Amino acid sequence: MRSLAGKDSAGAIDLERQPRVRIACQVCGSGRFRLVCSAEDIAAQHKFLESFYRSPWSRQNTATATDRVHFTQDYSTEIVTCTDCGLLYRNPRPPTQAVTKAYATERYDDEYLRTELATQQRWARMKVPLLARYLAQCAKRSRPRILEVGSFVGGFLLEGQTQGWDMVGVEPGHDVAAFCRERGLPIFEGMLDEARFTPGSFDAVVVWNTFDQLPDPRPLLEQAVVLLRNGGVLVLRVPNGACFAWMLRIRSLLPRRCRRPFDVALACNNLLTFPYLYGYSAPQLEYLTESYGFRLATCVPDQVVFTPPGHLAWWALAEERTVNALFRVIAALWPDDRSRQYRSAPWLDCVFERGCTDRESEDPKLGLGVVPVYSPLVFEDTGLKYPGNRWNPNGGFP
Ligand SMILES: [Zn+2]
Fold it and tell me: Quick one: which of 192, 351, 373, 375 is 20 to 30 A from 97 by CA?
């Protein structure tokens, strides 16, 4: 196929060549799982993805085209789901160190970064109202301080600054961090625990499209609860594993010639081949964050943003718009919020409130063993509560 310029593999860690390790479920710790996609299935999906984006893409040398076909988590493996809690994940996968190093050493050309910044800023503009709504309720200062973990090219940092927010980003990737610095954006290059920010100094911590790529999400949650002030918010955007597993299941029941709409819908939402370490659902995130003193305030079903104008051939554009419109119709008719899985939503934006403690100035750490108190102003009924709000180790989520 014609190569898509942008990401440069020279000098970067190739995860395909790394050894594989079997891992347990990150949410409930169970080692039991069920196969959702074999390595052969994933290879076939990748082949479809390449042909799907090769022919209709009218401007090949673009960041968006590269992003839709080549992923860091591209290596051959299986996609499984935990039989105890339903978490979707890649298993086996390369060791944690190799995954972390792969993101830090990814190389990009300049055109890719500039195009990606324009795309990301356009997308960030749509996310501002969600965060602004919660900041209006919880932020006590006129200029809220926001920390973004995994800032990439800085589109959200830039958009946040135009809103008058005090933005700070953390990014392990050398090329993208340098790109942010060149544009005067406040970025720390490295991992969150290396940044040494002042405890309790942020009104919000946002993690767009990064949480699912962390081999172990717990260190980030430990840091977030310390860095947020009382009542601050944590925003996590994740690919919805429940949606992927549900669509694959229906697709497998259809004759091969009828599967294209499912493949197109998954491809348009960056879910085909499932290029992420984990596919969390809303109840799994709720369980995972609860022990750190967070409470789910809202869960917003979402899709991947449309391809920018002028990048797709007219018929491909029509196909993308039609499939995504169908997706929205299905989501409207069947929001699936009672099952708390939101299976009709490819992506989820989840907002969590950090619990309050009386002794914040003395000890900002709020974790296991501390009973948090929540603000009734921020919390709204998400329908995601389960009896006792506790994990049932035998039966999973009710
Ligand atoms: Zn599990």
Answer: 351
CA of residue 36 to ligand 1 center, whole Å? 15
- CA atoms of 4 and 160, how far apart (whole Å): 31
Q: Please report whether residue 164 resides in a domain.
A: yes
| Ligand 1 mean position, distance from CA 274 (Å) | 18
Task: Evaluate whether residue 344 is within a structural domain.
Answer: yes
Contact between 313 and 58 under an 8 Å Cβ cutoff? The reply is yes
The total of other beta-carbon atoms located within 10 Å of residue 20's CB is 15
From first CA to last CA, the distance across the chain in angstroms is 47
Q: What CATH number is associated with residue 24?
A: 3.40.50.150
Determine the structural domain holding residue 159 and report its residue range: 14-387
* 22-31, 293-302, 313-322, 344-353: the lowest-pLDDT one: 313-322
Element (H, E) at 266: helix 260-268
Cβ contacts of residue 20 below 8 Å, gap of 6+? Answer: 77, 92, 93, 94
Q: Distance from the CA of 26 to the center of ligand 1, in angstroms?
A: 7
Task: Give the Cα separation of 202 and 74 in Å (integer).
Answer: 35
Question: Mapping DSSP to helix (H, G, I), strand (E, B) and coil, where does residue 252 land?
Answer: helix
pLDDT digits (tens, 9 = 90+) for 68-95: 666 777 788 999 999 999 999 999 998 8
Q: Is residue 6, in this structure, part of any structural domain at all?
A: no
In a domain? residue 393: no
* 4 CA from centroid of ligand 1 (Å): 37
Per-residue pLDDT of 10-30, as tens digits, reads 555 677 778 888 999 999 999
Between helix 110-138 and helix 155-162 the angle, nearest 10°, is 50
Are 146 and 166 spatial neighbours (Cβ–Cβ below 8 Å)?
A: yes
Query: How far is residue 256 from each of residues 123, 251, 279, 362, measured CA to CA in Å?
Result: 34, 9, 25, 62
Domain count, the chain: 1
308/175: higher pLDDT: 175
* 100-129 per-position pLDDT tens digit: 888 777 788 888 888 889 888 989 999 999
Please give the single-letter amino acid code of residue 219.
P
In the reported structure, the alpha carbon of residue 55 is separated from the centroid of ligand 1 by a whole-number distance in angstroms of 40
Which one-letter amino acid corresponds to residue 114? R
